Amino acid sequence: MAEDIDLRIDRLDDEGVLARVPFQAKLVRPGGTLSGPTIMALGDAAMYAVVLGRLGRVEMAVTSNLNINFLVKPKPVDLLADARILRLSRRQAVCEVSLYSAGNEDELVAHVTGTYALPL
After folding, report:
1. What is the mean pLDDT of the segment spanning 102-119?
2. How far apart are CA 47 and CA 17, in angstroms?
3. What are the b/e assignments for 78-105, b being 16+ CB within 10 Å?
4. Residue 14 and residue 49: Cα distance in Å, rounded?
5. β-bridge mates for residue 97, sequence order
6. Where would one find coiled-coil regions in this protein (predicted)?
7. How many C-beta atoms surround the C-beta of residue 63 within 10 A?
8. Separation of CA 31 from chain center
9. Which CATH superfamily groups domain 8-117?
10. Where are the domains of the chain?
11. Is the pLDDT reported for residue 74 higher than 90?
12. d(CA 118, CA 71)
């Protein structure tokens, strides 16, 4: 899926992850907005990246919960996702992702919270 949407990681550090999906006409749905599945995929992939960035390669880490609130229509520019870990335990990582249009960081397009189940 990451290849399908051309997912890119702009930043990975102790603060979290900044991921990006470049604007592409093929990802726009009727009505001129970026498709919901693309927005959800970016949020989920950003959570996965922040978990792997903290823990290293954990192949069996899987999404166990994902909640998304779509807030405004994204602009026809790159979509960015700023992800961070809220809580990390032995069995799970609870994450938060703020998604916004490039150049418009003050207006959230969507807000994601989710949990990754970690293998024992």
Report:
1. 96
2. 8
3. bbbbbbbbeebeeebbbbbbbbbbeeee
4. 12
5. 83, 112
6. none
7. 14
8. 23
9. Hotdog Thioesterase (3.10.129.10)
10. 8-117
11. yes
12. 30
Of all helices (H) and strands (E), which one includes residue 52?
helix 36-55
Enumerate the β-bridge partners of residue 8: 20
Give the Cα separation of 86 and 94 in Å (integer): 5
d(CA 1, CA 5): 7
Model pLDDT for residues 11-27, shown as the tens digit of each residue: 999 889 999 999 998 99
Amino acid at 26: K
> How far does Cα 76 stand from its chain's mean position?
18
pTM of the model: 0.93
Mean pLDDT of the chain: 94
**E strand segments, the chain:** 8-13, 16-21, 28-29, 33-34, 62-70, 79-88, 92-101, 108-117
| The predicted structure's pLDDT at residue 65 | 98
